[in-house]
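Hi R.,

As promised on Friday, here is the backbone we talked about, encoded as structure tokens. Could you run it through your design pipeline when you get a chance and send me back a sequence?
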């Protein structure tokens, strides 16, 4: 049986992509900063959706999907108790508070997700500026 160089490279690539390597997969441990960002994103998405700000809610839903994917081994239950938001000013205040929380986490985290937390903080602050 003759094996071509291309066939050998394709097979090696397929094995590497399938995870058949000697390097074990690393599952992240629970991260308090990511969990807090997830809880806040859920509350802000719910508040923005209830006021009809679907674009703002969509941004938070994207953050939720990313954070849930990163925290996959650890399920973070959804909290029904979010901030009571009745108008755009209250939502802007909640966004600003959420931004401050994410910014602080970005600066103090010991995990490799400081950039993600910084992007979340910037997004929330942009929402607050638009809503104000």
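Update: got your reply. Pasting your designed sequence below so it's all in one thread:
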């Amino acid at each position: 049986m003759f094996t071509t160089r291309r066939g050998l490279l394709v097979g090696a690539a397929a094995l590497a992509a399938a995870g058949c390597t000697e390097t074990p997969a690393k599952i992240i441990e629970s991260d308090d900063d990511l969990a807090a960002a997830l809880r806040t994103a859920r509350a802000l998405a719910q508040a923005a959706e209830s006021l009809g700000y679907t674009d703002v809610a969509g941004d938070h839903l994207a953050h939720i999907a990313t954070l849930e994917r990163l925290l996959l081994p650890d399920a973070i239950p959804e909290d029904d108790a979010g901030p009571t938001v009745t108008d755009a000013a209250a939502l802007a205040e909640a966004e600003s508070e959420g931004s401050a929380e994410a910014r602080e986490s970005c600066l103090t985290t010991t995990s490799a997700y400081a950039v993600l937390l910084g992007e979340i903080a910037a997004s929330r602050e942009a929402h607050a500026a638009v809503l104000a």
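One thing I noticed while checking it: The chain has a mean pLDDT of 80.

Thanks again,
M.
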